[in-house]
Amino acid sequence: MRPFELSLTAVAAAIRARDLSPVELVDSVLDRVERVEPLLDAYVAIAAEQARRAAREAENELAAGRDRGPLHGIPMGLKDLIDVAGTATTASSRVRAEHRAEADSTVAARLRAAGAVLVGKTHTHEFAYGLTTPQTHNAWDRDRVAGGSSGGSAVAVAAGAATFALGTDSGGSIRVPAALNGVVGLKPTYGLVPRHGVTSLSWSLDHVGPITRTVEDAALVLSALAGHDPRDPASLPAPVQDYRPRPGALGGLRVGVPRNYYFEHVDPEVETAVRRAVDELENLGARLVEVEIPMARYVQATQWGLMAPEATAYHERTLRALPDRYEADVRVLLEAAELMPAGDYLRAQRARTLMRQEWARMLAEVDLIAAPTVPATAVPADQQTITWPDGAVEGVTDAYVRLSAPANITGVPSLSVPVGHDRAGMPIGMQLLGRPFGEATLLRVGHAYERSAPVRALAPVV
């Protein structure tokens, strides 16, 4: 296999075995970027020369015996909400045309310290306020949506244009594009990964996390990202740990299978693939337990009741000063939320508190929940709605956020893992949701499933 085709875990091992150098790896990925980027538009900016320089530095450090860990010399993409000193953070918006970061965000600084090499900044749905990333094309079918808002990051990883990437997730924005492009996406527990230096969409829902080829890769990146930072008021002093999953059976683990909500209005091919994956978890030793998702009827209202006013508050000044620089879909959402009564926001906060309590009770009975990541695979780029077999019509964005939002509202960790393809060849994802700071369990289960499934190739872009 060519270096750009390898997983993070594989290239890290090859570098330490002296079978591959960081320079060879970065050159391979940059060649891949040059080939696929005109077709996919995953990146808003590419830092080729800086990446080559950083790769040479990594090679020299490793030759001198200074090993920074498994990310040393590994090429990555960062969603263009994440500040990197001296580079633009445009949020894929004309509003930020003149912006330039003065300092690294916490996550960029931690990845730099770990020796990771920045290939470029990846496209997002403008200010992360959407679930399709319209400027980027799906890695498996360029006529379909990439998913969002971390669409550029997921497409870059799926196409071999980055070995790993970071995204942000306020309502599914890591997991949705990961599922639609056949890669792994992890939304950590709220407060585990600091957001200092990351442009906000909705401060009480925002998370930062990895998008990777494999579950083990996600664990390696999370190990570098996690840890308290007092500059993020939401950051929690959780103990830092090595998240790498250990191989083994799943005996004794209780996997909750929802009897409501998560399998309602879901494409039959998606349901079949996810239920097959859940059965495989049982074959690996887990015990399946039916669970009732609490307060399911309030999820959508609570998600939008929190996100809309927080996003509008963040954009208050620029929305008044530069309204014409926003894309129409985002401007309408921001302006509409200005009319939202304060009481609605307070009720959404109260609903979130109650939902967290009920989810804690449910997760006391099982170790994790297994469910579809999204109810349908990637739709054509011009499709606005999905019509379900019972005649119900749902907007594409509402459909994609519906199954991912509960983890943002409650703050629990959620991992999306590829579990197959539909008849059109489009990827299907299963999400695993766990207890707060239960990432190690999710990664263990996801890794066990992954080892039992056939090896996945990169998206067949060219």
UniProtKB/TrEMBL annotation:
GO MF: transferase activity
Cyclic nucleotide-binding domain residues: 434-462
Top-level taxon: Bacteria
Pfam families in alphabetical order: Amidase
Protein name (Swiss-Prot/TrEMBL): Aspartyl-tRNA(Asn)/glutamyl-tRNA(Gln) amidotransferase subunit A
Keyword Transferase assigned: yes
Organism: Streptoalloteichus hindustanus
Keyword tags: Transferase
PROSITE patterns linked: AMIDASES, CNMP_BINDING_3
Transferase in keyword set: yes
